[in-house]
Amino acid sequence: MAAPYEIVAAPLTVYLAAVGTAFPDVDESPGGSWTKLGTSGDKNYSDDGVTVSLPQSIETFTPAGDTVPRKAFRTEEGLEISFTLVDLTPEQVAKVLDDAAITTVAASSGVPGTKKIPLRRGLQVANFALLARGISSVNDSLACQFEVDSCYQSGEPEPVFNKGEPAGLELTFTALDVAGDGNPYRLTQQTAAAS
Protein backbone atom coordinates (compact mmCIF):
# COMPACT_ATOMS: atom_id res chain seq x y z
CA MET A 1 0.00 0.00 0.00
CA ALA A 2 1.01 3.61 -0.28
CA ALA A 3 0.28 6.97 1.29
CA PRO A 4 -1.96 8.23 2.78
CA TYR A 5 -0.99 5.77 5.51
CA GLU A 6 -3.59 7.02 7.98
CA ILE A 7 -6.25 5.28 5.87
CA VAL A 8 -5.96 1.65 6.93
CA ALA A 9 -7.71 -1.03 4.87
CA ALA A 10 -6.42 -4.33 6.22
CA PRO A 11 -7.64 -6.88 8.77
CA LEU A 12 -6.22 -7.60 12.20
CA THR A 13 -4.93 -11.04 13.18
CA VAL A 14 -6.03 -12.20 16.64
CA TYR A 15 -3.96 -14.25 19.11
CA LEU A 16 -4.85 -15.65 22.55
CA ALA A 17 -2.61 -16.59 25.48
CA ALA A 18 -2.90 -17.22 29.20
CA VAL A 19 -3.65 -14.16 31.30
CA GLY A 20 -0.32 -12.68 32.44
CA THR A 21 1.58 -13.66 29.28
CA ALA A 22 3.98 -10.91 28.22
CA PHE A 23 2.98 -9.08 25.05
CA PRO A 24 5.56 -9.08 22.26
CA ASP A 25 6.97 -5.77 21.08
CA VAL A 26 4.99 -4.46 18.15
CA ASP A 27 7.77 -5.51 15.74
CA GLU A 28 8.25 -9.04 17.15
CA SER A 29 6.41 -12.20 16.16
CA PRO A 30 4.13 -13.53 18.88
CA GLY A 31 5.98 -16.41 20.54
CA GLY A 32 4.90 -19.96 21.28
CA SER A 33 2.72 -18.87 24.21
CA TRP A 34 0.37 -17.11 21.78
CA THR A 35 -2.18 -19.13 19.79
CA LYS A 36 -3.17 -17.58 16.47
CA LEU A 37 -6.93 -17.78 15.93
CA GLY A 38 -7.46 -19.30 12.53
CA THR A 39 -4.96 -21.82 11.25
CA SER A 40 -4.11 -19.27 8.55
CA GLY A 41 -4.80 -16.20 10.72
CA ASP A 42 -6.90 -13.52 9.01
CA LYS A 43 -7.33 -15.81 5.98
CA ASN A 44 -9.72 -17.76 8.26
CA TYR A 45 -11.91 -14.75 9.12
CA SER A 46 -15.04 -13.77 7.23
CA ASP A 47 -14.83 -10.81 4.89
CA ASP A 48 -16.64 -8.68 7.50
CA GLY A 49 -13.21 -8.26 9.12
CA VAL A 50 -12.31 -7.69 12.76
CA THR A 51 -14.34 -5.08 14.63
CA VAL A 52 -12.89 -3.22 17.62
CA SER A 53 -15.68 -1.60 19.68
CA LEU A 54 -15.27 0.86 22.54
CA PRO A 55 -18.77 0.83 24.11
CA GLN A 56 -19.60 3.37 26.80
CA SER A 57 -22.45 4.65 28.95
CA ILE A 58 -22.71 8.39 29.62
CA GLU A 59 -24.98 10.10 32.15
CA THR A 60 -25.58 13.84 32.15
CA PHE A 61 -26.55 16.40 34.78
CA THR A 62 -29.19 18.91 33.83
CA PRO A 63 -29.78 21.52 36.55
CA ALA A 64 -33.23 22.57 37.68
CA GLY A 65 -32.70 26.03 36.21
CA ASP A 66 -31.86 24.92 32.66
CA THR A 67 -32.88 22.51 29.91
CA VAL A 68 -29.37 21.85 28.64
CA PRO A 69 -27.01 19.42 30.40
CA ARG A 70 -24.08 21.08 32.21
CA LYS A 71 -21.85 18.07 32.76
CA ALA A 72 -21.39 14.55 31.43
CA PHE A 73 -20.17 11.52 33.42
CA ARG A 74 -18.91 8.28 31.91
CA THR A 75 -20.35 5.48 34.04
CA GLU A 76 -19.19 2.48 32.02
CA GLU A 77 -16.74 1.76 29.23
CA GLY A 78 -15.18 -1.27 27.66
CA LEU A 79 -13.51 -2.88 24.71
CA GLU A 80 -14.84 -5.68 22.50
CA ILE A 81 -13.15 -7.39 19.57
CA SER A 82 -15.46 -9.30 17.23
CA PHE A 83 -15.05 -11.38 14.08
CA THR A 84 -16.28 -14.56 12.48
CA LEU A 85 -13.81 -17.44 12.54
CA VAL A 86 -14.22 -19.79 9.56
CA ASP A 87 -11.87 -22.46 10.88
CA LEU A 88 -13.69 -25.35 12.52
CA THR A 89 -10.66 -27.53 13.27
CA PRO A 90 -10.96 -29.17 16.70
CA GLU A 91 -8.06 -27.13 18.08
CA GLN A 92 -9.59 -23.79 17.04
CA VAL A 93 -13.11 -24.66 18.24
CA ALA A 94 -11.77 -25.91 21.58
CA LYS A 95 -9.67 -22.74 22.08
CA VAL A 96 -12.59 -20.33 21.59
CA LEU A 97 -14.99 -22.48 23.63
CA ASP A 98 -13.24 -21.67 26.92
CA ASP A 99 -10.03 -23.51 26.02
CA ALA A 100 -11.85 -26.85 26.20
CA ALA A 101 -9.88 -30.07 26.52
CA ILE A 102 -9.82 -32.27 23.41
CA THR A 103 -10.16 -36.02 23.90
CA THR A 104 -8.23 -37.81 21.16
CA VAL A 105 -8.80 -41.44 20.23
CA ALA A 106 -6.20 -42.98 17.93
CA ALA A 107 -7.44 -45.11 15.06
CA SER A 108 -7.08 -48.83 15.61
CA SER A 109 -8.64 -52.03 14.31
CA GLY A 110 -12.38 -51.34 14.06
CA VAL A 111 -12.07 -47.96 15.85
CA PRO A 112 -11.96 -44.70 13.92
CA GLY A 113 -9.63 -41.94 15.02
CA THR A 114 -11.55 -39.06 16.63
CA LYS A 115 -11.17 -35.79 18.48
CA LYS A 116 -13.99 -34.92 20.86
CA ILE A 117 -14.73 -31.44 22.28
CA PRO A 118 -17.20 -30.89 25.13
CA LEU A 119 -19.72 -28.19 24.16
CA ARG A 120 -21.01 -27.61 27.68
CA ARG A 121 -18.77 -25.03 29.30
CA GLY A 122 -20.07 -25.00 32.89
CA LEU A 123 -20.10 -22.22 35.47
CA GLN A 124 -16.54 -20.93 35.15
CA VAL A 125 -15.63 -18.64 32.25
CA ALA A 126 -12.12 -18.89 30.81
CA ASN A 127 -10.11 -15.68 30.62
CA PHE A 128 -7.44 -15.00 28.01
CA ALA A 129 -4.87 -12.35 27.17
CA LEU A 130 -5.60 -11.10 23.63
CA LEU A 131 -3.34 -9.58 21.00
CA ALA A 132 -4.80 -8.21 17.74
CA ARG A 133 -2.13 -7.20 15.25
CA GLY A 134 -2.45 -5.17 12.07
CA ILE A 135 -0.93 -2.35 10.02
CA SER A 136 0.21 0.94 11.57
CA SER A 137 -1.52 4.14 10.50
CA VAL A 138 1.90 5.84 10.47
CA ASN A 139 3.44 3.69 7.73
CA ASP A 140 2.01 0.47 6.31
CA SER A 141 5.38 -1.28 6.49
CA LEU A 142 5.04 -1.01 10.30
CA ALA A 143 2.60 -2.68 12.70
CA CYS A 144 0.04 -1.78 15.31
CA GLN A 145 -1.44 -3.95 18.00
CA PHE A 146 -4.29 -3.98 20.48
CA GLU A 147 -3.25 -5.54 23.79
CA VAL A 148 -5.94 -6.84 26.17
CA ASP A 149 -4.65 -8.08 29.54
CA SER A 150 -7.73 -10.19 30.26
CA CYS A 151 -10.88 -10.95 28.30
CA TYR A 152 -13.48 -13.65 27.80
CA GLN A 153 -15.32 -14.92 24.75
CA SER A 154 -18.80 -13.40 25.20
CA GLY A 155 -20.26 -14.18 21.78
CA GLU A 156 -22.81 -16.88 21.08
CA PRO A 157 -21.37 -18.80 18.12
CA GLU A 158 -24.06 -20.17 15.81
CA PRO A 159 -22.31 -21.89 12.92
CA VAL A 160 -24.60 -22.44 9.96
CA PHE A 161 -23.71 -25.49 7.91
CA ASN A 162 -24.89 -24.59 4.43
CA LYS A 163 -24.15 -25.26 0.79
CA GLY A 164 -22.02 -22.54 -0.76
CA GLU A 165 -20.94 -20.64 2.39
CA PRO A 166 -18.35 -21.56 4.99
CA ALA A 167 -19.62 -22.31 8.49
CA GLY A 168 -18.25 -19.80 10.98
CA LEU A 169 -18.11 -19.06 14.68
CA GLU A 170 -19.20 -15.50 15.50
CA LEU A 171 -16.85 -14.47 18.30
CA THR A 172 -16.74 -11.47 20.61
CA PHE A 173 -13.97 -11.02 23.15
CA THR A 174 -14.91 -8.63 25.97
CA ALA A 175 -12.18 -7.02 28.08
CA LEU A 176 -12.00 -7.28 31.87
CA ASP A 177 -9.94 -5.27 34.38
CA VAL A 178 -8.98 -8.16 36.65
CA ALA A 179 -5.82 -6.40 37.89
CA GLY A 180 -7.86 -3.33 38.82
CA ASP A 181 -5.08 -1.03 37.62
CA GLY A 182 -7.34 0.97 35.30
CA ASN A 183 -5.26 0.19 32.20
CA PRO A 184 -6.52 -3.21 31.02
CA TYR A 185 -6.14 -2.61 27.27
CA ARG A 186 -4.01 -0.50 24.95
CA LEU A 187 -3.36 0.36 21.31
CA THR A 188 0.28 0.56 20.25
CA GLN A 189 1.15 2.13 16.89
CA GLN A 190 4.67 1.48 15.62
CA THR A 191 6.16 4.77 14.36
CA ALA A 192 9.65 3.62 13.29
CA ALA A 193 11.71 0.47 12.92
CA ALA A 194 14.05 -0.50 15.74
CA SER A 195 17.57 0.84 15.32
SSE order and pairing:
Elements: E1 13-17, E2 35-36, E3 51-53, E4 56-61, E5 71-77, E6 80-85, H1 90-96, E7 103-105, E8 114-116, E9 128-135, E10 143-153, E11 169-175, E12 185-189
Question: Mind explaining what this structure looks like?
Answer:
The protein is mainly beta and 195 residues long. It has one domain. Helices cover 4% and strands 34% of the residues. The protein has 1 helix and 12 strands; from the N terminus they run ββββββαββββββ. β9 and β10 form a beta hairpin. The longest helix is centred in the middle third of the chain and has 7 residues.
Portion of residues in helices? under 10%
Secondary structural class = mainly beta
Major sheet: size, sense and barrel closure? 8 strands, antiparallel
The total count of helices amounts to 1
User: Please, what is the average pLDDT?
Assistant: 94
The number of distinct structural domains comes to 1
Radius of gyration of CA atoms, rounded to a whole number:
20 Å
